[in-house]
Amino acid sequence: MTDYAIDERELDATWSPGRGIIGWLSETGHKEIGMRYIVTAMCFFALAGIEAALIRLQLSRPDNTILGPDAYNQIFTMHGTTMMFLFAVPVMEGMGIYLVPLMVGTRNVAFPRLNAFGYYMYLFGGIFIYTMFALGAGADAGWFAYVPLSGPMFAPGKRVDTWANMITFTEVSALVVAVEISVTAFKQRAPGMSLNRIPLFVWAMIVTSFMILFAMPAVMLDTGFLALDRLVATQFFNQSEGGDALLYQHLFWFFGHPEVYIIFIPALGFISAIITTFTGRKPFGYPVMVSSLVFTGFMAFGLWVHHMFATGLPQLGQSFFTAASMMITIPTGVQIFCWIASISLGRLVIRTPVLYVIGFFAVFIIGGLSGVMVASVPLDFQLHDTFFVVAHLHYVLIGGALFPLFGAFHYWFPKWTGRMYSERMGQWAFWLLLIGFNLTFFPMHILGLNGMPRRIYTYGPHMGWTTLNQVASGGAVFIVLSVVCMLANFAISRRRGALAGSNPWNADSLEWATSSPPPSYNFLHLPVVAGPNPIWDAEPDPPVVVGMATGHREVLITKTLDAEVDHREEIPGHSLGPFYLAIAATIALWGAIFFAWWFTIGLCLSGIVLIFWFWPAREQVEVDMLREREEATP
Amino acid sequence: MSTRVLDVSGLPTSAADSRALLWWGNIGMLAIEGAMFAMLFGTWLYLKTANLDWPPQSAQLPPLLWPSIGLGLLLISGVLMYAFADRGAMKDDVVAIRIGHVLCSLIAIAFLIIRWKNIAELGFKWSDHAYGSVVWTSIGMHTLHVLTATGEVLVLLAYESLRPVAKKQLLDIRCTAVYWYFVAVTWIPFYLLIYVAPYYVRKG
Fold first, then answer.
1. What are residue A558's phi and psi, to 5 degrees?
2. Are A404 and A267 a contacting pair, CB within 8 Å?
3. Exposure winner among A220, A391, A429, A491, fewest CB in 10 A?
4. If DSSP states are collapsed to H, E and C, what string results for A236-273?
5. Whole-angstrom Cα distance, residue A421 to residue A427?
6. In Å, what is the CA distance from B14 to each residue of A441, A518, A627, B11, B167?
7. Rounded Cα–Cα distance for residues A351 and B93 (Å)
């Protein structure tokens, strides 16, 4: 027995974060980086929320002059851009980075330094666009910045350049996270966690990661073309020189539609995790759930033209994309029915996370129905560019992503902090959000049907839109109160909440098999998995993995299909390299909007940083050689 | 502490093949890059459908000789990378690896000189028309990849000459080789598009 005892202190010293500012900047632990993503994303959420409040304030009465047209353009563009690129995608990535390694039973993500690099790229991208905004160069061509409006002819100055390059920052960040998460989920699972035992949330992150791999390059290329057109006078979108404005829309929506699912699919994973735990039974229809996720992932790439019905594309193409848009409701419907089956077969315990899931059902289904409406071409012609679309997209995104996300925050809060949140405040926040959300966004359906276009900074009193706009603006107050209530709950409970213990919900997945908050190394002994719900399926006295090194950062690599043990691998630890590389990339992208050669300078600097990053230290090589010799002579 | 255990202390601590993490990370990066190149390729095709005059009459048809020699060199370097460096890494043969890296970096430098000449001979600029934009961007993106791959091989060559090569570095060498194949093979469709297709698709 004692042979297998682990030196806990050595293990902790190996995996612990460094001290001081240098330690902070060189940190590569997945829990720390994941939490930084989540906190940073919530800061951007607050900024975008303030922008939304300003929009509602401006529209709260006719002929209002709080914001002029120019300020209004910047504010709604910054709101959309922030919510999509600096909040929704990064916060889902943060959740994945924090949870996937714990759920699959490993010690860190596959590429910890890349992970840190991704975070700094995201952070610097956000700082970049907000600094330029503060300096009066806020992006103002909408969150998708259509040409020719955003082209060199109609948008002089630095505003759109900033927007285009900010996209590159965030997409680089999303891409590196996608690679890490898929490799972690495929190669680092605990022994016994075969493909058909992966938790549904991890499946959701795998599908999301694959979608990111193929969707994000489209928008990087697209905004790259836009930046080139603006900065070095290429002609990609210039109709008079053989370019094509619709090319921009095609490339943008080839990314933009999957993007919606990149935000939505992790949320489906949250819901599955929450429903499984609070019904106390294994998820109904696991294989169907997984195939629905995969099917959604593929189908999401076949819908992009439904954002472009009003551009006059050929009839046949429109019919095809209408059919595809209707078809993608099938896998989502299948999942919703599976959850309902789980709920009716199990005993549902109502807690705040569950309320958010129920809120999701209500709100998202309304959004889905208005989605079926705008998926048909004749209706879309009528509703395009009106507030109906604004209502639809908020029902889908807030209903489909924000409700499950807030539910997930409550659900995993005890794991993150070791303490319980206040159930009463949690439920208050939920009801405030549900009421406030519907008050704000439901009237927008009617406003849109009454002909109110989106993105106008004001309207006349004779239009008959005043009352509904006032209801919407009043609803926004409830949303603000709800978010304040939720954050206050977290802030107070973090210090004063009841102690949670390792598994307060009696949940099934591996993150609950370790203490709350988890130690730096996640699991003292890596677990061995015996079923699709590891904690519930474990026999008494479950087996564990022994023989892992404790003196350096070692992870266990298992085979992709059946998770049989394969080999052990040392993964990199602390480094300032990722931080420096992100600085070099920032020099390239920020500088390029003023002078094109900065891009080249930044690339050269990146190359130099990369060489220093990868050049192994002499001691490290000696250790490696020694270890190899030991292995060769058993 | 459980009484039943799965002892992994006897497992190897590295793998220089498709079982390793880095291998999969590299494949992930190539998927991203491949998607990017595929969409760049699609951009050319899309712009062709949007233009009656493609390539524009003002653009001269490209000379074929040097671009073809360039492609040939790139593909030969891929074969040499496999024969010496990649197989050398499989057999832990540092001499073969060094030979492979020297040969490939020399060929890459020759290729880059030819590439420079190809660009100078295009006869139009990126700002002349959309055709120019997409051709320059394709060549530029690919050249950036060749430069990166060459830089990587030169750094590896410096490392192999100065320091002992552990198993971990064998994995680096194999991943760099895979990247090299990707960079070489990616040029085939773009070569056909930029140098061969204009002779067939231009009307009149």
1. -120, 170
2. yes
3. A491
4. CCCHHHCCCHHHHHHHHHHHHHHHHHHHHHHHHHHHHH
5. 11
6. 55, 27, 10, 9, 7
7. 62
Provide φ and ψ at B17, rounded to 5°: -150, -160
pLDDT digits (tens, 9 = 90+) for B1-14: 556 889 998 898 88
CA angle (A479 as vertex; A474, A483 as ends), nearest 5 = 150
Q: Nearest CA to CA, how far is B38 from chain A (Å)? A: 10
Choose, out of A234, A236, A599, the residue to mutate when testing the contact with B (most B CBs < 10 Å): A234
Q: What is the pLDDT of residue A152?
A: 94
Phi and psi, residue A566, nearest 5°: -125, -65
- pLDDT at residue B26, rounded to an integer: 97
The residue of chain B with its CA nearest to that of A540 is B2
Q: Is residue B196 part of a domain?
A: yes
Give the residue from A546, A552, A608 with the most B CB atoms within 10 Å of its CB, the best one to mutate: A546
Radius of gyration in angstroms for the set of CA atoms belonging to chain A, rounded to a whole number: 25
- Is it the case that residue A290 has pLDDT exceeding 90? yes
> What is the spatial distance between Cα A563 and Cα A76, in angstroms, rounded to a whole number?
48
Instruction: Return the CA Rg of chain B.
Output: 21
pLDDT in tens, B155-165: 999 999 998 88
Q: Residue B36 contacts by C-beta under 8 Å, 6 or more apart in sequence? A: A217, A220, A221, B141
- Amino acid letter, A313: L
Q: Rounded mean pLDDT of A522-549? A: 92
Query: Out of A174-183, B2-11, B65-74, which region has the weakest mean confidence (pLDDT)?
Result: B2-11
Question: Of B8, B134, B163, which is closest to A548 when you measure between CB atoms?
Answer: B8
Q: What CATH number corresponds to the domain at position B133? A: 1.20.120.80
Query: Closest approach of chain B CAs to the CA of A617, in angstroms?
Result: 10
pLDDT at A265 over 60: yes
Nearest chain A CA: its distance from B2 CA (Å) = 6
| pTM check: above 0.90 | yes
CB distance A251–B39 less than 8 Å?
yes
Residue showing tokens 């057999």:
B91
CB count within 10 Å of CB A106 equals 27
Q: At what angle do helices A352-375 and A387-397 cross, to 10 degrees?
A: 140
Q: What is the pLDDT of residue A2?
A: 46
Are A214 and B35 an interchain contact pair (Cβ–Cβ within 8 Å)?
yes
Nearest to A406 by CA among A343, A359, A367: A359
**Inside any domain, residue B21:** no
Across the interface, whether the CB atoms of B164 and A238 are under 8 A apart is answered no
> Which residues are CB-neighbours of A174 under 8 A, at least 6 positions away?
A89, A90, A93, A118, A212, A216, A262
Within a domain: residue B152? Answer: yes
Nearest CB partner across the interface for B155, out of A233, A247, A611: A611
Are residues A543 and B2, on separate chains, in Cβ contact within 8 Å?
A: yes
φ/ψ bin of A203: left (φ > 0), alpha (ψ from -120 to 50), beta (otherwise) = alpha
* A401 close to A416: Cβ distance less than 8 angstroms: no
pLDDT digits (tens, 9 = 90+) for A315-356: 888 888 888 888 888 999 999 999 999 999 999 999 999 999
Residue A225: name the closest of A169, A161, A171, A172 by CA.
A161
Q: How far is A629 from chain B (nearest CA, A)?
A: 10
Taking CA atoms, what residue in B is nearest to A627? B13
List the domain range (segments joined by +) for residue B142: 71-201
What distance in Å separates the CA atoms of residue A317 and residue A297, rounded to the nearest whole number? 21
Answer yes or no: is B168 within a domain: yes
